[in-house]
């Protein structure tokens, strides 16, 4: 099992979410996050006479645990649907998950990640 953490533009979230559902990746969690990238250090913007610090970018973090057989299709789905071609499209991180449990049924491992029905 693998854990995919994807930091994407908030504006691309609905597109990515819909695409993941179409690929039968239906269980994931997300958070609104703020971060700073290499291209945003110490930027200031003046809007209607007010100085705004634009060095922190609002993004969405997706956390998805998938079976190994679904890893590549999930990554491709995110890459293709989060892409705008502009600086700040985001990052994807993949890490190993050693075990998972479904609390309701007490299933563990791969079986805890999908419905048998």
Provide an overview of this structure.
It is a single chain. The protein has 117 residues and is of the alpha+beta class. The chain has one domain: Alpha-Beta Plaits (2-Layer Sandwich). 19% of the residues lie in helices and 34% in strands. The protein contains two helices and six strands, in the order βαββββαβ. The protein has a four-stranded antiparallel sheet, covered by helices on one side. α1 packs antiparallel against α2. The longest helix is centred in the middle third of the chain and has 12 residues. The chain is elongated. The relative contact order is 0.30. The mean pLDDT is 87.
Features:
117 residues; alpha+beta; Alpha-Beta Plaits; 4-stranded antiparallel β-sheet; 2 helices; elongated
DSSP helix fraction = 10-25%
Sequence of strands across the biggest β-sheet: 2-5-1-6
Low-confidence stretches: none
Radius of gyration: 17 Å
- Report the order of strands and helices: EHEEEEHE
Q: What is the fold-level CATH name, i.e. the topology?
A: Alpha-Beta Plaits
Report the biggest beta sheet as strand number plus sense, adding barrel if it closes.
4 strands, antiparallel
Q: Which architecture would the CATH scheme give at its second level?
A: 2-Layer Sandwich
Mean of pLDDT = 87
- Please work out how many helical segments DSSP would assign: 2
What oligomeric state best describes the polypeptide chains here?
single chain
Overall 3D shape: elongated
Category from helices, strands and their pairing: alpha+beta
* Record field, number of beta strands: 6
Strand percent estimate = 25-35%
The CATH first-level class comes to Alpha Beta
